[in-house]
């Protein structure tokens, strides 16, 4: 069993998730990365997890708990996009995004809470988005899934606060990732001009805020939505 506190990051094999995993590792956590493939990532313990399957989530947590111990920081970061204008968006594409981004986060947080209640402390950290409250054309499904995280996190916060468990949402804006790299130069410029700070964020800037919320410095913060968006959402 690990002597270090354990952090579990879903979707931690690339992008924002990997930046979070690296930062928590530097903070002294033993970091377990969860991904669909379960493929190894150098420097980390890794498990396979499909957040759309309750059985897969249970299996992943059972493996973590028996191999290393109870993870006391859970970062629900796994998610997908299936963008389309609303009249072209199929029920299947709407439901798939909700199932992965919202219900998937519920499955992970619910299963992880079993361990947190045993140790009477913990952090539930949900990776949301600035579009949760701003909305985004072509992202009805994604916006709805990220908005749902806010109500869910705040309900977890009320239910579990007396046990020393906090629940918060980090809401990134536009981040330099593989997904945003696919945007054309013109579109990237338009987006950057709409952001008061005039640029996309680096994934490490998201990770640093997760690091703070995972730390003892944030012990009295719960039910919060913390924007890391360069001013794009202005608190919405």
- Name the helix and strand elements from N-terminus to C-terminus, one letter apiece: EHEEHEHEHHEHHHE
Low-confidence stretches: none
CATH class: Alpha Beta
Name of the CATH homologous superfamily: NAD(P)-binding Rossmann-like Domain
Give the biggest beta sheet: 7 strands, parallel
Structural class: alpha/beta
CATH topology: Rossmann fold
Number of strands: 7
Tally of helical segments: 8
**Cα Rg:** 17 Å
Helix fraction bin: 40-55%
Mean pLDDT: 95
Shape: globular
| End-to-end Cα distance | 42 Å
Number of domains: 1
Trace the largest sheet across and list its strands.
3-2-1-4-5-6-7
**CATH architecture call:** 3-Layer(aba) Sandwich
Percent strand equals 15-25%
Structure characterization notes:
This is 3-oxoacyl-[acyl-carrier protein] reductase. Keywords: Oxidoreductase. Pfam families: adh_short_C2 (PF13561). One of its GO terms (molecular function) is oxidoreductase activity. It comes from Candidatus Planktophila limnetica. This protein is α/β, with parallel strands linked by helices and 236 residues long. It has a single domain (6-173, 203-224), classed as Rossmann fold. It has eight helices and seven strands. It has helices at 15-26, 54-67, 91-119, 131-134, 140-160, 178-181, 185-194, 203-214, and strands spanning 6-10, 30-35, 45-48, 71-76, 122-127, 165-172, 225-228. A seven-stranded parallel beta sheet has the order 3-2-1-4-5-6-7, with helices on both faces. α1 (15-26) links the parallel β1 and β2. α2 runs parallel beside α3. It is globular. The model has no long low-confidence stretch (mean pLDDT 95).
């Amino acid at each position: 069993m690990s002597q270090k506190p354990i952090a579990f990051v879903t979707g931690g094999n690339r992008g924002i998730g990997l930046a979070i995993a690296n930062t928590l590792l530097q903070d002294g956590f033993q970091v377990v990365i969860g991904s669909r493939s379960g493929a190894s990532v150098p420097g980390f313990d890794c498990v396979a997890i499909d957040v759309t399957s309750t059985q897969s989530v249970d299996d992943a947590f059972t493996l973590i708990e028996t191999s290393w111990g109870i993870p006391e920081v859970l970062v629900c970061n796994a998610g997908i996009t299936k963008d389309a204008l609303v009249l072209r968006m199929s029920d299947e594409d709407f439901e798939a995004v909700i199932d992965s981004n919202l219900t998937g986060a519920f499955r992970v947080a619910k299963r992880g809470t079993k361990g947190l209640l045993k140790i009477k402390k913990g952090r539930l950290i949900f990776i949301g988005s600035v579009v949760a409250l701003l909305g985004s054309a072509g992202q009805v499904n994604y916006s709805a899934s990220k908005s749902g995280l806010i109500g869910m996190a705040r309900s977890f916060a009320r239910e579990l606060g007396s046990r020393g468990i906090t629940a918060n949402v980090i809401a990134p804006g536009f981040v330099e990732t593989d997904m945003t790299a696919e945007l054309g130069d013109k579109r990237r410029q338009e987006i950057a001009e709409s952001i008061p700070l005039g640029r996309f964020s680096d994934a490490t800037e998201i990770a640093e805020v997760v690091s703070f919320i995972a730390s003892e410095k944030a012990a009295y913060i719960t039910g919060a939505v913390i924007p890391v968006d360069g001013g794009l959402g202005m608190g919405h």
